[in-house]
Structure formats: structure tokens, C-alpha cells
Amino acid sequence: MRTSQTLISTMKETPSDAEIVSHQLMMRAGMIRKLAAGLYTWLPSGLRVLRKVENIVREEMNRAGAVETLMPVVQPADLWQETGRWDDMGAEMARLKDRHDRDFVLGPTHEEVITDLVRNEIKSYKQLPINLYQIQTKFRDERRPRFGVMRAREFLMKDAYSFHLDQETMDETYQAMYDAYCRILERMGLAYRPVLADTGAIGGSHSHEFQVLAQSGEDAIAYSTESDYAANIEKAEALALGERGEATQEMTLVDTPNAKTIAELVAQFDLAIEKTVKTLIVKAVEGAEHELVALMVRGDHELNEVKAEKLPLVAAPLTFASEEEIRAAIGAGPGSLGPVNLPIPVIVDRSVATLNDFGAGANIDGKHYFGINWERDVALPEVADLRNVVEGDLSPCGNGTLKIARGIEVGHIFQLGTKYSESMNATVLDPNGKATPLIMGCYGVGVSRIVAAAIEQNHDDRGIIWPDAIAPYQVAILPMNMHKSHRVAELAEKLYAELTAAGIEVLFDDRKERPGVMFADHELIGIPHTIVIGDRGIDDGNVEYKVRKTGEKSELAIDQVVEFFKGKFA
Amino acid sequence: MRTSQTLISTMKETPSDAEIVSHQLMMRAGMIRKLAAGLYTWLPSGLRVLRKVENIVREEMNRAGAVETLMPVVQPADLWQETGRWDDMGAEMARLKDRHDRDFVLGPTHEEVITDLVRNEIKSYKQLPINLYQIQTKFRDERRPRFGVMRAREFLMKDAYSFHLDQETMDETYQAMYDAYCRILERMGLAYRPVLADTGAIGGSHSHEFQVLAQSGEDAIAYSTESDYAANIEKAEALALGERGEATQEMTLVDTPNAKTIAELVAQFDLAIEKTVKTLIVKAVEGAEHELVALMVRGDHELNEVKAEKLPLVAAPLTFASEEEIRAAIGAGPGSLGPVNLPIPVIVDRSVATLNDFGAGANIDGKHYFGINWERDVALPEVADLRNVVEGDLSPCGNGTLKIARGIEVGHIFQLGTKYSESMNATVLDPNGKATPLIMGCYGVGVSRIVAAAIEQNHDDRGIIWPDAIAPYQVAILPMNMHKSHRVAELAEKLYAELTAAGIEVLFDDRKERPGVMFADHELIGIPHTIVIGDRGIDDGNVEYKVRKTGEKSELAIDQVVEFFKGKFA
């Protein structure tokens, strides 16, 4: 492609509403333009990347035995009423009425539509398992769309839905999708981790997120230094930290009138934060003996609300008690709580259970106990995994310790069980002729989000650094002052024609721009390989070859350019 | 692809709501399923065809120098308010509000969005001309969606928009698009005609429709027996039919109390229909001397309302006068009107102007004049082209006569002039630094409609007959009783593997179905080439090769099958 024949719209200024690097660079490199909040037009170079991502996703889905379909963007409301999600989805689901005043939605996802299709088309277990996917435009009316295409309202998604008679084929397809997602991200040249994920409100037994690693990622991932183990921080199991030590101190009641927080306590007293305990009071599940439950984690740890919510004694969604409720039940305020003499049930984190000689509130306003020891001073309560893991924790897989990385979720695979097939009565006849609800899996890839995630992971202060597989073009030809030098123009045209004929995707900068402008534009756009053609090189029979990622420069003999790139992209 | 690994959902029954053949066959062959009125899910085999059509369109657009982009489905209302189309579009444009109560539309077309993009990105004539396109989902809330994907509410469209400083490059791009559309339809193997079209409300000087020829087409096309001339019937010029003959009869007033229509007149009197004149009274343009105008065509011809509406004296939109209005102005009812003694302006069709000895109403209830001759009995009024052409008319190109065919509009190219660039203030600086409104062209292809149009043109009573270029698969392998014959199974697997490895798209029917079911399914689905593998053929070293289109059968030596197809699809 010649720059003169496409739309190269680079910008020097960073748009003020672009908060993250990928959004800034996609705007500056002329990949996207904003039409309205969360709505973007893909300009030619951006669309080329999007299509490459889409094609890799398609190829790997096909290879994994999934079959492509295409469902409408606009969906009738009645299917959503059938599953109850018409009410559950809230304002994130855009709704409209047609000219006959019938209700429709702009599909934020397609479980209802695909389950409706499958209940009509699949009658026998012999047609199973089947895995149907589409690559399609979705709309979610985000409360606060931002970060460009990372969190847009309209976006391109690959969504797949598999249907099964039995758990065995469900597990096989789940594994096939897991493997396909790994191949997709590997082929794109992205550093990523599949991480165990919480299944959240969707339920089901299995779920993995596929996270592209990037400093700016919204998600925290814990992974092992020694194994493949990785989990979303919400899900990562926190093991106990060694054995409990012996008691060496007496338990003493200390006046702590100005220490309402752990930070104030350790600042004012000679107490390590690792020897303190934080007490959080939450609502108990309905029908429990007490209305409140105390959850305790070490002073330097954070409560993991997802884990807490799953405890049988604790109400879901997790609800913290108010100060009034705490005072009514315990007789002291939230700044002075602890395990000794606490009149409500207590669940402590594993790392609290291994403490000795620790400090905690005395359940008397303005007082703490120091030197508490379990069993001697107070019975050890129920123990559970209650906290977020931190760097240096033992990996729950048994190998290595945990590190924390940040990631961008670009894929998510779920086992859904029979949630949708039961509410929509999607059954097949099993080998005995009995109607059986279908077991379902679903598998999403944020196709447009991958483009942004790839940039978050691959850029420098001059612009984007595309991995070869998803670059808008593989090679850029930059002729220096071609409008003045006939030789430069001739060689540039020749190499452009030959490389293109060899099936290599070339962006040929035939604009009348100064070399400095060209270099800046191409570093911004991020094409991985560049050939610079100048009069001086031609004298020596060379062109300059530059690698965007490393900045490395070398000479390439003119007559070897085509072979060089053929070999590179073979 | 193995049938066992995809979704083959054929139906014997024709769905009751499928009125036309393509809709019936797409449903029966399992290409599409209806989600709601005008909303269809594309099943695997249908989507394969859709993607092939899409890819041919994309390749030819790229070859013609157009550059691909992707604009959102959801568009902010303010752009539509800027051009006034927010009010003009009516109920066909679906509208919605987002969570912040802001107005949006589901894009029925993208002139506003692209013009907004271009006014922001294109600043200088040096960046022109540019032709930007997308292949994207559109939504039009048709009053009566029907005929499956032929007239769906959600559909896939290629829309391109070109921008120019001058008419010369506008004409060049228009021609490039014309040529690209011809190549697209030729590559698909479809019989089609580019036809001159009326520009209708959009205005502009040039417009062509691309019509796929099919008996069931909604549009009538007039084309020359001797040249490339073709035009939409609304647009085709009707020439005069020879010279006017001499007067041979006296003009006589005849009582015709029971002849209120031309049909009644010629049935009751000795008068050829070609010697009668039909008078239609319409409203005159505002400010004209008379409120009504009489339009006259021959009794056997039809008024062309598009042509009539363009006459300076006639009000647009064309409005017929009521009987009361006619009586008030003329003193006679609509069944007795004619040119003699008519007190309002008259415009006659060219073929009326060449009549001699003709009959027409006398402007007296229950009376006609017979034997009327222009000039002798009444002055020849204004003459214009007022009628639809009919078969046998001289072609306006000067070569041959006209024939009428039916077609399905699958493409439309327009020159829009500065309509949008002026209302949206989209200008560039010309070489003198002067801001100049952009000249614009637009070019649409109904991608999903082409699939249906191809079927309307290519089918028989057993099913679809796909042209090679857009068939869901190129070759079907039908093994006879493969589950009983090891030899058949082995050969089928071998040929499937070898053909697939050779890059040929094969549907391998590995279902445990009876041969009759297989043949019926594959004839319905319409794969152009079939290999039938049976024990008897294997004994002779042969497979049977069937051509779907002709029904021709022949023997192919087993060891030549792969080479045969490689040659065919090279």
C-alpha cells in the first residue's frame, strides 16, 4: 500500500481524553477515531490489525473444531424474558422498540439466541457435542466507557457456545478451547497467562481468564515462580505461612485511645504489622444463630471479598455491618475489635491462625490486647482462606512462591452447566430416548480489545511496536527525498513491487515529507521492519534495515532484500 | 468439513412464510434461521457463502483503490440532525436512547458518519481523491420485512464513499466503481446488467443500479437487443414511434355512455387500443397559471410517474387530481377526457404526438371523439417522454429494440455532488488555499442480498445450484453405505484428506444416512461438484462424478480425482 492511497492520519498531540497508552497511541497513529463516547471508527491501519487478530482467532477456532455462524446484533426481548436476564441486565443492555412497538435489545452477548437456535435444531445426542461460534459486533452500554477500544460500548467479540450431553465431552471441549486460546495468543506474539478465574454470578465449576500481561492491566494475577500455576487474585488460594510459633509474651490489656486503625496502632506502639490482626464484621447468612460474623486477616493483608462471600456462614452478597450494628452486638466500635471475648462467630484467615504473640482489639473502646496467643488466651476459631495473596506467598500448587503481575483480560472460558438449557428448556434425547437438558460451555475473546492490549504490552516512548503476526504491514519502505532523487524513487518502486509480489505486506511512504516526519510517523505506527533507501546507500549497493523493536540498524545488499524478507516471513 | 462436525439442518417442508424460492431454499438447505421478523441467524453453510461474497467484494474494492475502514453500527443522532435526515428518515431508521438518555440511531447508511470523519481528517486537496469503504451490519426497520435475507431488517452491506476536489476525479472513481461492480458479479458467475437508474430523492447526475437477472426480480429492466444499453424501467427513455400519419378520417362525436375506461371503449367500438389516448389529470406546480395539468399517453401505454414528476409544470411528488377537482376544472368526469376543448395545459407522450385518426374523450360526460387528428382538430400540445417503455420499442441508444427483463438490485452507485459536504461543512483547501466543498460519490453492495439473488438465478426443483466461486464447498464426497463397507470408508477418507490438502473445500458426508437422503440433501444444498463412492465403482477403479448444474454423470479414475479437481479450480 502506498501512503498516498490510504489514509495516514497521525497526530503529534495526545488527545486529552486518552488516559492509557494504547488509547493515546491508537489515536496518534491514526488507527481509530472517536465518533461518540465508547464508539470508534477503525481507520485503515487500525482495521488491518483488527482483521489480522480476527483471522487468527477464526483459524484457531476452526482448527479446534468449532463451527462459525453469525447471529443478529438486534435480538427480540422475549428470549431475554425467558431467562430472566431482561430484568437482570440493567442499563448496560441497550434496548429499543421497533416500528411496531415491539421490544428488542442490542445483543451484549448471545447465550439466549444460541440456546434458542440449538433447542430448535439439535434433537438428538448424535448431533453432539457441537461448538458454534461467531465473530460479531456487540454493544454494552458501559456506565463509563473509556480507554478507547479497551472498554468501548460497541466492540468486536468472538463468542463460542458448546453443547453437550455429558460432562466428559464438556471437559474435552473446554480443554480444546483452553488450548486454542493459548495458540491464538502465542501466534500473536503476546506474553499472556491463562489464569484460574472466579465464576462469579454465572456459576459453573470451571473458568479461566486469558490475561495479556501489561503494567497498565486492570486485573492482578498471581503466578508461581516455579510452575504454570496462575490465578486471578480473586481466586488464588492463600496458603498458611508456616507453623504457629510458641507463646513468649504475656497477654496484656493496653490503652490505645488514638489507634483506631492498624496503621495508627503500629505507628504508636512497638508492634510489627505482621503481628497484628484486623477484624471485619459482616452480615451472617439468613437464619444463622447470630446476625453478624467476624472475619480476621493479618494487619498487612487484605480481605478477599470473593472468598469471604463463599463461606457458608456469610451472607452473599458480602455486606459489612454498620458501626451501630457492631456496637449493638459487641459493645465496642470497629477500631477496637479482636478475637478475645468476642460474642459472635469468628472465622480467621490461615495466616492469622499461625500467629503467636499478636495484638488485636480488646472489644473495649480504646483498648487492645498485645501478646495474644491462640488456645492459651482464646480458642482458635474456624480457619479459612480469607485473604488476597501477596508476592512471596507459597504457591498453592506446591512449587515456588507467588509473584503478582498485572494483566488485561482478553479471553474468558466458562462451563455454564445447565443454567440456560434449563430455563429455556433446551433438551436432547439421550441414547435411551430420554429428554436431557444440554450441558453448555461458553468462550469469549475480546477481538478489538486484543488490539489495545497488544499495544499496552508492546510500545516505547516513540510509539507502537507491533508483533509481526498482527502488524498492519510487515515492512515499511522509507525513501529519502525520493521526489528529488530519481535513483531513490526507482529503487523504492522496484523493491515495493518485488516485495508485494512476494506476498509481503508493505507500506511504501511515497509522500513528499521530510525524512524526520517519515521516521517519526513510522515509529509511531510501529511497523516491525523498515527499509530506508537513500542515495548514499545506493552508491554502496545497500539499503538500511531497521528493526522497530530493538532499534537495531544494519546494511542489506540491495539484491538480497527480497530474499531476506521472504526468509523472515516464510 | 465433515457433516458430523458441522450443523447440517436440512428440511423437507417449505416454511409457510417463505414466499420466494431463495427464501424457501435457504431455509430448507439450512443456510439461515429466522430469529424474528427480518432478523436471521446465518448457519455454517450459509455463512460460508456470505463470507465468499464478502471476500470477492473486498478484493475488488481493494483492487479498485478503495481503502477499508469500519464504522460503528450505533451512531449519535446529532450528525443526522445536522443533515436534516433525523426528520426525513422516518420509521425505517431505528432509534434508541443510551443510559444517559442521549439519542442514537442504528445506522441504516453512513453518509453522515463518513462525512464527519472526512471533514476532520482531510484538510488538503493533496489527500484527494479518497474512496473509503466498509463491509458492515446495517439495520433498516422495513415496514414489511420479507423474502428472507432479500429484504431483511438487519443485513450485511458494503458501502463506499469517495471524496473529490473536482468532477474529473469524481467521474474516474465512478467509472472505477462501475468496473469493480462488474468484476464482482462476473467473478461470482452471476448474469447481471448495470442499468441507468433514476437518482430519485438523492439527486446527483449519475446513478447506475447493478441488477442480477431473475424472473422473480422486483425491478423491471429495459435493455437493447443490439447494444449494452440497459436502464431501470423508471429511467429508460421512450422514443417516438415513427412519424405521424396523414389524417384519413373525419372527427366525429360518439355517444359512449358505458365506456369509462380504455378497455371498455375498445371492447364496445371498432377502435384499436393503439389508436386511443388515456388522459391523466395531475396537480400543477405551485404558482402555475392553472392548478391542474393533463398528461396523455397511448391507451396501451403506462404513465411513468418518475418522468412525469420531473416536468417543470408538474408538482412533485406527483399528485393525481380527484374527480371533484377534475369536474370543477373541466366539466366532465375522468372517463371522458381528451385533448379537444380541454381548458387546462396538456402534455402528451411522444407516441401520442405521432398518432393520427385516434379516439379520446370529448370532455363531455358519456361522449368521445373518434378520428381526431393533431393540428387539423386541435393544436399539438407540449410533447414529452411520459411513458414506460415496452418490449419492441426502439432502444434510445439507437441500436436495436428494447427487451424487458426482471432483476434484483444488488448494487447501486451514485454521484452525490455536494449535498452532504455542504450541509455538514466538509471542505478542503484547493491549490489556491480556498475552502471548497467536497464532491462525493457513494457506492453500495447488498452483500447478504447477493446470496439470495444468486439462488433466485441458480436453482432447480431439487434445490440450489451454486456457481463455483460462491459455493459453500467446492466438492461433496458422498460415500455409499460407508459404515458397512470398509473399502468405501477408506477411499472416502483418503480422497477427503488429499483434496483438502490440495486446498479444495470439501464437504464429506460421513453421516450414517441412506444414499437417498444424502443425494437429496446435497442437491438441496447445491454443492457444484459431487463424488459418489461405492463398492461397485471401486471394483472398476472408479468413482462417479456428478455436476449439480447439468446433472451430468461420468466416471473418474480413482487415481485421477485429485488432479482433476486441482485442474478445475486452478
UniProtKB/TrEMBL annotation, chains A, B:
<dbReference type="InterPro" id="IPR004154">
    <property type="entry name" value="Anticodon-bd"/>
</dbReference>
<dbReference type="Pfam" id="PF03129">
    <property type="entry name" value="HGTP_anticodon"/>
</dbReference>
<dbReference type="InterPro" id="IPR045864">
    <property type="entry name" value="aa-tRNA-synth_II/BPL/LPL"/>
</dbReference>
<keyword id="KW-0547">Nucleotide-binding</keyword>
<keyword id="KW-0436">Ligase</keyword>
<comment type="function">
    <text>Catalyzes the attachment of proline to tRNA(Pro) in a two-step reaction: proline is first activated by ATP to form Pro-AMP and then transferred to the acceptor end of tRNA(Pro). As ProRS can inadvertently accommodate and process non-cognate amino acids such as alanine and cysteine, to avoid such errors it has two additional distinct editing activities against alanine. One activity is designated as 'pretransfer' editing and involves the tRNA(Pro)-independent hydrolysis of activated Ala-AMP.</text>
</comment>
<keyword id="KW-0030">Aminoacyl-tRNA synthetase</keyword>
<dbReference type="InterPro" id="IPR006195">
    <property type="entry name" value="aa-tRNA-synth_II"/>
</dbReference>
<dbReference type="GO" id="GO:0006433">
    <property type="term" value="P:prolyl-tRNA aminoacylation"/>
</dbReference>
<comment type="subunit">
    <text>Homodimer.</text>
</comment>
<feature type="domain" description="Aminoacyl-transfer RNA synthetases class-II family profile">
    <location>
        <begin position="38"/>
        <end position="467"/>
    </location>
</feature>
<dbReference type="InterPro" id="IPR044140">
    <property type="entry name" value="ProRS_anticodon_short"/>
</dbReference>
<keyword id="KW-0648">Protein biosynthesis</keyword>
<dbReference type="InterPro" id="IPR033730">
    <property type="entry name" value="ProRS_core_prok"/>
</dbReference>
<keyword id="KW-0067">ATP-binding</keyword>
<dbReference type="GO" id="GO:0005524">
    <property type="term" value="F:ATP binding"/>
</dbReference>
<dbReference type="InterPro" id="IPR004500">
    <property type="entry name" value="Pro-tRNA-synth_IIa_bac-type"/>
</dbReference>
<dbReference type="InterPro" id="IPR023717">
    <property type="entry name" value="Pro-tRNA-Synthase_IIa_type1"/>
</dbReference>
<dbReference type="Pfam" id="PF04073">
    <property type="entry name" value="tRNA_edit"/>
</dbReference>
<comment type="similarity">
    <text>Belongs to the class-II aminoacyl-tRNA synthetase family. ProS type 1 subfamily.</text>
</comment>
<keyword id="KW-0963">Cytoplasm</keyword>
<protein>
    <recommendedName>
        <fullName>Proline--tRNA ligase</fullName>
        <ecNumber>6.1.1.15</ecNumber>
    </recommendedName>
</protein>
<dbReference type="InterPro" id="IPR007214">
    <property type="entry name" value="YbaK/aa-tRNA-synth-assoc-dom"/>
</dbReference>
<dbReference type="InterPro" id="IPR036754">
    <property type="entry name" value="YbaK/aa-tRNA-synt-asso_dom_sf"/>
</dbReference>
<dbReference type="GO" id="GO:0005829">
    <property type="term" value="C:cytosol"/>
</dbReference>
<dbReference type="GO" id="GO:0004827">
    <property type="term" value="F:proline-tRNA ligase activity"/>
</dbReference>
<dbReference type="Pfam" id="PF00587">
    <property type="entry name" value="tRNA-synt_2b"/>
</dbReference>
<dbReference type="GO" id="GO:0002161">
    <property type="term" value="F:aminoacyl-tRNA deacylase activity"/>
</dbReference>
<dbReference type="InterPro" id="IPR002316">
    <property type="entry name" value="Pro-tRNA-ligase_IIa"/>
</dbReference>
<dbReference type="InterPro" id="IPR050062">
    <property type="entry name" value="Pro-tRNA_synthetase"/>
</dbReference>
<dbReference type="InterPro" id="IPR002314">
    <property type="entry name" value="aa-tRNA-synt_IIb"/>
</dbReference>
<dbReference type="InterPro" id="IPR036621">
    <property type="entry name" value="Anticodon-bd_dom_sf"/>
</dbReference>
